[in-house]
Design brief:
- With 501 residues, this protein is α+β, with helices and mostly antiparallel strands.
- Helix content is 18%, strand content 38%.
- It is built from 8 helices and 30 strands.
- The strands form 4 sheets. Strands 1, 2, 3, 4, 5, 6, 7, 8, 9 and 10 form a 10-stranded antiparallel sheet that branches. Strands 14-13-12-11-16-19-20-21-15 form a 9-stranded antiparallel sheet. Strands 25-24-23-22-27-28-29-30-26 form a 9-stranded antiparallel sheet, covered by helices on one side.
- α7 packs antiparallel against α8.
- It starts with a helix and ends with a helix.
- About 11% of the residues have low confidence.
Length: 501
């Protein structure tokens, strides 16, 4: 029994060995039928500065370039913006093309993918010499590619440099523009016009946050933190590919009627340069009049920009077309003929942007210096507070600032008023709402500003978690409604008790 078992195992071992040998022979038969030399051999040696013409294949298309007086031209279009630097870099690999293995007496090019090569590259040099390199399959074991030149009987294995470098499209050799490098801190205006309407955000010194927003009919204060986060995304946008350098059929890309128009104004300031500006979105661009406005008619406030030193302002407008099969958007900078693609994810926040999402949630972000007087209405009574600032020198000759306050014309404790003011001006909404109060306000605070404008914030009971605040500016026909955390209003009402005693 034991002997029988040993015989069985011996038979299995012999069978496995035979299979291994057969499989090994089969896997290597493609090359062992041909003679092989393993010494490294130079396949081509054509210095790039001597090459005056070349062609290569992309799919079923062959692209040819000729060099005239140090200028490269695409044979299919004399106006094509060929990039000499890209071409010279591409051709530099031909200075020396070496083979790690050489197969001779080849009888079947098909087994190397060379009967119908993946690419055929032709070169001509300044002496009239002509060279050809046919590229076939990848050898997955070594990472090399099979190739041959003019002798079909000799196949080489070359590294992946040239095969991969020539897996390109025509526009990979074009001199085209890049998406501009835009620093969010340099942006003074961003405007998006789309099916969602108008979104315009621009820097303005009159805003307490530094930014104003407009939907074309109303102006709001912008949330500077949220806006800077949005503008940071401009730095992550890049073109994926160029499709045309001189587009004559914008309708093919949906650019005759773009789904969105993105306008950006940014200022680059060199060293030792200071810029003070109040941006006016209507200063340029066809949608300028709708880009911002005052609270009544949508017109932008007057704008003035002053610079010292060397400063350069730039404005760009991008047209966004339809999407291609991979979901990328077609994009064109207005005023150019170039059409590019861009990732949908890079544009998502700009295409979906709306004013509400970027409004400041601060209800009355005013400094004490901006407020001439404050009137509080509580339980049917009004209390008007005014604060005066006095500066005098102490015994040491130093300026010392002190404050005095009045309530309804009578002296009032300045510290108590300041505590109340800080709470009142620091109130923030959780969100804006379309709700409207159905009861009387528990507290109304009117801020009369030193520039003659005014803002009123009224607080109404709403539900177990929120108060409803109505915010209106002098001259504004309607008020904005916002939900405010109930605990925050409770803190405010506690301060109210301190100033009405």
């Amino acid at each position: 029994m034991k002997k029988s078992r040993l015989l069985i195992w011996a038979a299995v071992l012999v069978l496995c060995t035979a299979c291994y040998v057969l499989l090994g022979k089969k896997s290597s038969s493609a090359e062992t039928t041909d003679s092989e030399e393993t010494d490294e051999e130079t396949v081509l040696a054509v210095p790039s500065d001597t090459i005056t013409g070349f062609s290569f294949v992309v799919g079923k298309n062959t692209y040819s370039f000729l060099k005239n007086d140090d200028t490269w031209n695409y044979s299919g279009d004399p106006n094509f913006p060929a990039d000499a630097d890209k071409i010279e870099n591409l051709l530099s690999a031909f200075s020396e093309v070496s083979a790690s293995r050489v197969l001779t007496d080849v009888s079947d090019l098909a087994q190397y993918g060379l009967e119908e090569p993946a690419n055929t590259i032709h070169l001509t040099d300044s002496e009239g010499g002509e060279y050809v390199l046919h590229i076939g399959n990848l050898n997955s074991s070594t990472g090399d590619y099979y190739a041959y030149t003019s002798d079909e009987k000799t196949v080489y294995t070359i590294d992946s440099t040239i095969p991969l470098d020539f897996q390109i499209g025509l526009y990979d050799l074009a001199k085209t523009e890049s998406f501009p490098s835009i620093d969010s801190t340099e942006v003074s205006l961003v405007e998006v016009t789309s099916e969602n309407g108008l979104f315009s955000a621009y820097q303005d010194a009159s805003s307490n946050t530094g930014w104003l927003l407009s939907d074309g009919s109303r102006v709001y204060e912008g949330d500077d933190s949220k806006l800077l986060s949005l503008l940071d995304e401009l730095g992550s946008i890049s073109y994926q590919s160029c499709l045309e350098y001189d587009c004559q059929n914008p309708e093919a890309y949906g650019l005759d009627h773009p789904i969105a128009r993105i306008r950006v104004r940014y200022t680059e300031v060199s060293a030792n340069t200071s810029v003070a500006s109040s941006e006016d979105p209507s200063a340029s661009g066809e949608n300028g009049d709708a880009a911002g406005g005052n609270s009544e008619d949508g017109e932008n406030p007057a704008a003035e920009e002053t610079t010292t030193g060397d400063a350069a302002g730039t404005e760009v407008v991008f047209l966004i077309g339809i999407q291609d099969e991979s979901g990328r958007y077609f994009i064109q900078r207005e005023g150019t003929g170039e059409v590019h693609t861009v990732l949908a994810s890079a544009l998502a926040d700009f295409l979906d942007v709306d004013v509400t999402s970027y409004r400041s949630l601060a209800l009355a972000p005013l400094s004490m210096e901006q407020v001439a007087s404050l009137t509080l209405t509580y339980e049917g009574k009004q209390y008007t507070f005014e604060q005066q600032e006095t500066t005098a020198q102490n015994d040491g000759g130093e300026d010392v600032t002190s404050y005095t306050c009045t309530r309804n014309g009578k002296t009032f404790d300045a510290d108590t008023y300041q505590d109340f003011f800080k709470t009142a001006r620091g109130m923030n909404a959780q969100s804006y709402t379309d709700a409207f109060p159905d009861t009387d306000a528990v507290c109304v605070i009117q801020f009369a500003q030193t520039d003659g404008s005014g803002r009123t914030v009224s607080y109404y009971p709403y539900d177990d978690n929120f108060y409803l605040a109505l915010v209106s500016d002098d001259g504004q026909d309607s008020a904005d409604a916002a939900l405010v955390n109930k605990m925050d209003v409770s803190t405010l009402l506690a301060q109210v008790q301190n100033v009405i005693k």
